[in-house]
Amino acid sequence: MDVTAPTVSVSGGHGGNGGNDLAGSGGGGGGAGGYGAVITGTGALGLLTSTATGGNGGNGGNGQLEAGNAGSGGIGLALTGGAGTSLTINASVRGGDGGAGGNSSVGATGGTGGNGGAGLIGSSGASFVVNGAVRGGDGGAGGSGIVPGSTGQAGAGITGQSLSITLGASGSISGGLGGGGAHGNALELSGNSSLAVAVAGTANLTGNIALGAGTLTLDQSNGLDITIANAMNGTGALAKTGSGTATLSGNNDYSGATSVLGGRLVADSSTAFSANSHFGVAAGATIEIASAAGFGATVGALSGAGNVVIGNGTMLTIGAKPVATIFSGQISGPGSLSLDGPGALSLTGTSNSIEGLLLLCGCSNPTLEINGGSLSVGDPAGGSGSIAVAGGTLRVVNGGTLHMVDPFGLLAMQSNMEVSGPNSLVTVEGFTGIGGPSNVGLSISAGAAMESRAEAAIEGIGPSTTVTVTGRGSSWTVGSNLFVGGYSFGGTGTLTISAGGTVNSSGPLWIGSDPDPLFGFARASVSVTGAGSVLNANSGLLVGYPGCGCGDYTGALTAADGGTVNAGAGLQIGRLGTLEIGAGWLAGTINAPAIVNDGAILANFVDVSILAANISGTGTLTKQGSGQLILTGSSSYTGATSVLSGLLTVNGSLTDSAITLAGGSLGGSGTVGSVTVGNAGMVAPGNSIGTLTVAGNITFAPGSTYQVEVDAAGQSDRIAATGTATVSGGTVQLLAAQGSYRPSTRYTILTAQGGIIGQFAGVTSNFAFLTPSLSYGANDVALALDRNATAFPQLALTRNQAGAARAAEALGGGNRVYDALITASVTDARAGFDGLSGEVHAQSVGVAIEDSHLIRESILNRLRWPLAAGGSAGTVDGAFSADRPGRSAGTTLPAPSLAMERFTLWGEAIGAQGRTDSDRNAASLDRRGGGMLFGAEFNATGAGDGQWRLGIAGGYTRTDFDVDGRRSSGELGSAHGALYGGLRFGAVSLRAGAAYAWSDLDVTRRVALPGISDVLRFDGRSATAQAFAEIGYALPYGPVSFEPFAQIAAVTVRTSRDAETGGAAALQVLGRDQRLGFTTLGLRAEMQLGAMPLLARGMLGWRHAFGDTTPAANLAFIGAATPFQTYAAPLARNALVAEAGLAWRTSASTTLGVSYSAAISDNARDHALKGKLDVRF
Hints:
5% helix
């Protein structure tokens, strides 16, 4: 050997043979062969030019029973230098062969052959250039016996961890032959190893490549192509770098990842790509399935941004790994793509294209998602391009596109498919088939679209086959026939259009139908629900229709909740077909010129729907739900028409169907066939007042109703029958329109050319002032409507109702108010009288009176405090400044020595609310308001003990009030002015004042009568004048001062003459004066709290009202001569009044105060909160 740097040591030779023991139990074991060479140096070791061969293992000894096992061959060459060690091998390196197992002489068990030694063992991180032949040793043969001995395993060509191997032009690496003749591994590698070739071509490797933990990198940085025909197995990973092409053709099943970082990785056989490996293809790199690969290749998963090329006649299968991956590169080629595993693949690239089959296999639930990317399937020139979703889910989302371009191809959707999001689009040039043996679902949502340019069928034999198109902008367009069930010999299908989705069928739409079935069955339904949802089937729409009359074909079409069905060429309902308008809630719309109904039409909704089609056939129509179905076409179907609830209005013709009313109603001005009005059924001709023509007989059963509408001009609803009218009871129910009725009016409400048989049980109305009656002729029934003797006031329950009723009746016929009341019921008339009474105007007077209390009490409170006799002024400042010689304040508050204040400015904020309950004539009143008062005073001391004070005050208040029982409200804004004065002489105090308020009144009230719905507004003025006086006597008692007092006040409220605006019920307010008085007896108390300049005050008393205590208003209808009075609830004649407050002297010249007051009676409650400020100078 010629090695330039390290020391080479040759270890041992061949192992010794085991000894024979032919007489004993067993032979001896053979010895192991020694190492051919061990190189212990590091760094660049130079060239190996001498042959290194490991020693052979010794043979096992022969034995009588048990034979000896053979020894293993030795390692050909071992490097121990570690990382950085490099060696070029230009010679032959071979591992030693294993020895042969010993033989059993009596045929028991032969010895085990020895394992061949590895050709080369490299230390971790070492690198080799192999120009010679590196070969593992052969395994030894097993010994003979009844049970032959196992053969020895072949030695690997090269084994080690993190090795770098370059295979030279003349180099070869081979595994030895096992004792049974099979080659051992050419390479056994772990860690991050690499393999490169010095010349392009097939790598001269014999035996498999075993990948342990780590990655084997095919290093093609030199750009050379390489072909590896060897099988790679194990748990390790494979990486490919460089620009060259690496072609794999072995039976590879390693489980680590495959990373293609550059160049091309080509599968040249169906097993070349490991089905257990996750393939990652970097941008610029390519994996390819060569056309010679047979049926195709399988990978565990796919990700990356590179290229995938699928050769002609091949298929790339993805999915053994249960992982979700994203591939943003390009898949292309004439081959096919299959997903067969629990994984999920998301394609985000925009130029994916295959010409073969796209397959999602049925047993492993795979997912393929086209997320913003695109995928084209098939060859536009025609070929084998189809899409089969046999299992799992195919998703097109976020603007992704899927295009099956082959017009002869097939979309076979037997599992689930989702198309979602704006600009997401699926286009199918060939046939679209949806259905299979299990649950199948296609969802088009959130603005996505699908275009099936040939025929499409929704039909499966599993539990559920459903297509859902939902969301505004979502659509499915079919370029030819669309079958929902019934495409083949049997199956079920459901199409649901909702929330603004659209389905367009350019050809006929067959729902549970077949143009020419020989036999079979179908169960199918289509529903169009939600506003904006549309089904366009303008080339024909067939429901439950077997073309030749054979088979069991059941179909249902539902339009509900605002959905629309457009059938421009008409709609045909077979004998097992059903058209449902509405589904118990809102109706849908059916736009069709004609309907052939040999099945059933069910109308079940709560709103109004118009069906303009001409209906023919032998089928039935059933009306359910509380809504109204309006038929405007000329219909000739012969099946029964049943109205179970709601209203059927016929404004066209329906002459060949017998109509039965069993809980529902029939109306309209068209022509119908025979009519039977059963118990709880009703006929109400016309759309307002009109005539319903019956081309046949009409029958009224007991419990039926004939509802007749009449007007003041003598017009009425009428039934005109060409046959007989059989009346076996039933009731005529009268509805009268608003108008000026004559004292007696006669109406013909029923004619029958074949005669009138029987009579109605009676006639009813809810009119308070009109009385109906019936009369019978041979061929007609007449209704008379007469004004009865009931005067409007006779129905009044209250004096407000009576006043308004008298004034309204005086208006006479022709006046809108009078005419509205004439046709009112007793209940409506009384409610109308209340509304007409203008009660809120009387209530506003009460509001003004209550506001007068606030002004009066604020001024008197200015004059009455403090209570202690001898105080220098009637406010808390008087107590604090009573420092004249010989005077002491009535309280013990510490007072600074100040000159007497001559002038005081004060202000007070007021907030109040109150409620007056109803007295069964007037409604209750709620009020809330507030305002500000300001004043100025002059204080003086008279002769002797007399002290007096004069003041002026002004301010503004606003009170909002509601009379909810009369649908009325108002606002009273008042400007106030007042003069007042007070005199204290010893313990006696006299206080008096006068105030005046100028008020603006805004009122809104609503009046509702038959034909009248007025909102009336009033803008008027009023004034309030009052004078008041009070006397009190101070009684000090320790720290508390008491004052019994008596008070009297006179109040006048004057309303001006103004008028309401807004409608026929407007009133003229005539103006009046409301005069009343109040007396109050009570006791006040005051005391100092501690040593602070803080006073607590309280009052308790009894207030009595006298005079005009019931607020009233003089009113008249505008333009009428008869006035009337309306009244509010009476003011409380007796009330408990109370007040509590605090006053705080913040400085020698300033006082703050707050107080709460209340007035409580059996029918009224008033509360007020006041804040005060005094400034003296």
